[in-house]
Amino acid sequence: MLASCNLLFRESMQWVTAVGKRGTRVRQTTRLGPTRIGAVATDFVRRNVWTLEAAGPWHPTLLAYASAITVMSQLPDADPRSLAYQAAVHGNVVADEFLDQCQHQGWYFLPWHRMYLYWFEDIVRTIVAGLDGVDDQTRAEWALPYWDYGGAAETRAIPPTFLAATLPDGTPNPLRVPRQLDVGDRLDGTDVDTGAALRSDRFAGIGGFGGARTGHNHFAEDPDARAGTLEMTPHNTVHSTVGGLLGQFETAGLDPLFWLHHANIDRLWEVWAVTMGHANPNEPAWLTGQTFRFRDGTGAERAQQPADVTTTLTQLHYEYEDISGPPATPGEDVPRSRRPTELIGATDESMALTGESASSAFDVAPPTRRSPGRVFLTVDDATASEMSAMTYRVYLTVPDDDPATTDEFLVGTASFFGADRSGAALRLAFDVTDVFTRLRADERWTDRVSVTFVPNWIAGGQSTGERLPQQPGEVRVGRVGIVVE
Ligand code: C2O
């Protein structure tokens, strides 16, 4: 039994390698996209959901998605193409080697979710191709849209198609599921602020775009696990604030909006790497050190490594409608070496976050290094007894200003997505070099600092009567500290 499983796995690996090498041709024989002519295959285009919404209610791409979700919801849970199975791939305690795999708090977060999305999209596209009543163009071109919540304030609302009670034929809309963010609500601006992420000039390590260097890390197995800047915001923050199914690992994939949220995270990676010209890791440990396994639209096994999904998106035959972003910042010589970090101060007691503002002050020593590099505020070993679907603005101040919660001292937004998992130890890091440098220049950086968490309530906490109540949960932050590089 085991031997035959292994054999199957090896065969599928070889097959994937073959596809990787001859990708375009192989895909062309199985996918007849309208623009894939000759040797150069043009990609499937993942569109901004707001472009689709602007065309009027129920764009064919979204209607086809809703129909596919209905089909997937009706498949038996054990069918790899079912929505239940797909959600369980992300996080479930069911024992199947394909399930409960999602990579968080480390440098596999981005490549793993890119693969996960890619095979989910393959499943949806396969189902759409077999649906009645879908036009040929949609059938041939279907690609997962992305939810870009980083535009005007209106883009921070749930797209209307995901809020509509019914489909055009009057039946219940499968894209609408219970959420705490509902009609008339918006994400807080700080929940979607990509500034810190896009300013990260390295991929791996503390303060890096893509997360800490870890081994296979579902959540906190690796002692070095720590979320990267993109995972923190807007990834975790959007999970928390949308709440409901999206607020928990185990159920997130059941909200059809999950996949559009992750398409946007994947797109932001492309903005960072391609538009802004930053480098993905070139370390073999990352490129080929881990193999991740999925099921495709036919239910067949697929295996990929980060190297298979990070050369260019062209190798995967998709692209995004828009990857514009801040201009490239070439020329900066970014040290990729791992400079040892020094903890110069930390709280000695844990802190409770239960939906109220909370502060904690602690002593800091001057850095021993004469020219300290980056300075980080670390939030370590956060756990929660139940889902925490709330985000907190985080402020770093000195005692004189206490409690100063003005933008001058805002260092970022914290979400505790996943902290309710058993064995959780959520670790975050905020780059506070600016605040540190400013305070130091003014000679106000003292031997004591204080950190304040201020909850973000949706629309001031006024319930529309439809949405789920916002759930602060019971978060316990093990330690808050200042780390100097
Ligand atoms: Cu693995 Cu957005 O989660």
Keywords, separated by commas or semicolons:
2 domains, 12 helices, 485 residues, alpha+beta, Jelly Rolls, binds CU-O-CU linkage, di-copper center containing domain from catechol oxidase, disordered N terminus, five-stranded antiparallel beta sheet
What's a quick, concise take on this entry?
The protein is of the alpha+beta class and 485 residues long. Helix content is 28%, strand content 16%.
Topology readout:
Blueprint: H1 2-21, H2 23-30, E1 44-46, H3 49-54, H4 60-74, H5 83-90, H6 109-129, H7 136-141, H8 195-199, H9 229-242, H10 257-275, H11 284-287, E2 292-295, E3 301-304, E4 318-320, E5 342-346, E6 351-353, E7 358-363, E8 375-384, E9 391-397, E10 410-415, E11 426-431, H12 433-441, E12 448-456, E13 475-484
Parallel strand pairs: 1-4
Antiparallel strand pairs: 2-3, 5-13, 6-13, 7-12, 8-11, 8-13, 9-10, 9-12
Helix pairs in contact: 1-2, 4-6, 6-10, 9-10
Bound molecules: CU-O-CU linkage.
CU-O-CU linkage (C2O) binds next to α9.
Question: If you had to describe this structure to a student in words, what would you say it looks like?
Answer:
With 485 residues, the chain is α+β, with helices and mostly antiparallel strands. The protein has two domains: 319 residues, di-copper center containing domain from catechol oxidase; 143 residues, Jelly Rolls, CATH 2.60.120. Helix content is 28%, strand content 16%. The protein contains twelve helices and 13 strands. Strands 5, 6, 8, 11 and 13 form a five-stranded antiparallel beta sheet that branches. A four-stranded antiparallel beta sheet has the order 7-12-9-10. Strand 2 and strand 3 form a beta hairpin. The protein is globular. The N terminus is likely disordered. Bound molecules: CU-O-CU linkage. CU-O-CU linkage (C2O) binds next to helix 9.
